[in-house]
Amino acid sequence: MRKIYIFDTTLRDGEQSPGVNLNTREKVEIAHQLEKLGVDRMEAGFPAASPGDLAAVNAVARAVKNASVIGLSRSREGDIDAVREALKGAADPCLHVFLATSPIHRKYKLKMEKHQVLEAAQSAIRYAKKYFSKIEFSLEDAGRTEPDFRAEMVAMAVREGAYVVNIPDTVGYLNPAEYGAIFKHLKETVPDIEKVQLSAHCHDDLGMATANTLAAILNGADQIEGTINGIGERAGNTAIEEIALALETRADYFGAKTGLTLNEIARTSRLVSKLTGMNVPGNKAIVGANAFAHESGIHQDGMLKEKTTYEIMSPETVGFKESKLVLGKHSGRHAFREQLLEMGYALEDAQLNEAFAKFKELADKKKEITDDDLLALLEERLPDAPELYGLESLSFSFATEAAPTATVKISVAGEDSRTAESGGNGTVDSIYNAIDSAVGEEVTLVDYSIQAVTLGKDALGEVHVTLRQGEAEVRGRGVSTDVLEASARAYVDALNRLAENRRVPSGRKGAEKDW
Ligand code: KIV
Ligand code: ZN
To answer: How much is the pTM?
Structure first.
């Protein structure tokens, strides 16, 4: 079995999903989980894009011990220096430097001729070689690059001593036969190609990212790049869990394997979904809520007789377990800690105290608490600094024949408290109008979604909102047994993220204004 290296870019390309803004603590939490999952390499961000991103990459670099940590850079010395700074303290640092190579990008974006692109990339790699022993070079939009020029660029990167050469289908344009053929062509024509690892990096614009990545593997790719849940720019990146399970389930066909701990997939997927605010669709392969559900009578009958009739892999393989009743109102701190340990969470004392207080609050409202409830509590936002706004109290009135109103009390910077009352088109609208007038921020609600964490009338409700302010777009999440309170919490959470963003600009979207 050939080993396929997994390069996770959830924290970089994944974070480029519209509205996703991870702060440093959230990036570190995801990075720890990616380590448990067993990814070989993880791209933590784009340090030159903002001071916040540089600090977040540095925090990940210092925290991760069992995977190579990578920083992205344009083919510019300043960007490379920012990655050097960001990767200080990393156990196994790697620079990822890229330059676009396709005719469209050369003509319109770079305004460079082929020889200028080649020279710019070459001098970037040469400069980087002084500081990094591991360099990945990416030919951005390699998929739409002329075959001869693509091979010439790859040959240059091999000569200059790159460790990995990445062939991205940046715009998700190719089909599996075409993408696979590129790897075959490079393997056959580029001198000394065996000195580098070839990497596949696909986007899902036409829904072919997984198929294209698998085609690359069949044609000799050593590394694949992707994200958890397939999040990423536009339609997203290759979903790592799909590649891992394709290789596992069809080992007979692919003859290749990853080093991933497969039963960490469900937990990783859930954590990424919670912290990014990007819900996983029910029918998403491998990690969707319905991925292992059997609805039709014929299928259920088959499953009862023999699981393999309709199941090609088991939910346990990826770490799905039935949500169990675990604790109740009378459970003590010891039982709570034990339960968290069993679920894979070893909290420090301060965190445990905070989580236990939240658990007690929930237990007052909800009789039986399941492991999914606990996860929802644990995965609440982890601010980098004390939050600007806090929801102190909320009340509202609603009657079918009268206009709704809401009153909120919001604490500001832990000192001042502001109360405001407002009406609106519905109760949620009234609450949001009241919060707006209490905090005096100009924001637009771009998206609102609600879902139940578990089954039952007393299930926790989880609300996600997206707010826009100027060019910044952030998501917020709120969890409560009351969906209106969850709605208010999600809104306040998003306002706090906007405030955090103003304090330390971490969002890099649009920060890197040119190539
Ligand atoms: O899709 C792409 O081309 C990228 C590069 C920066 C590798 O993400
Ligand atoms: Zn990409």
So the answer is: 0.90
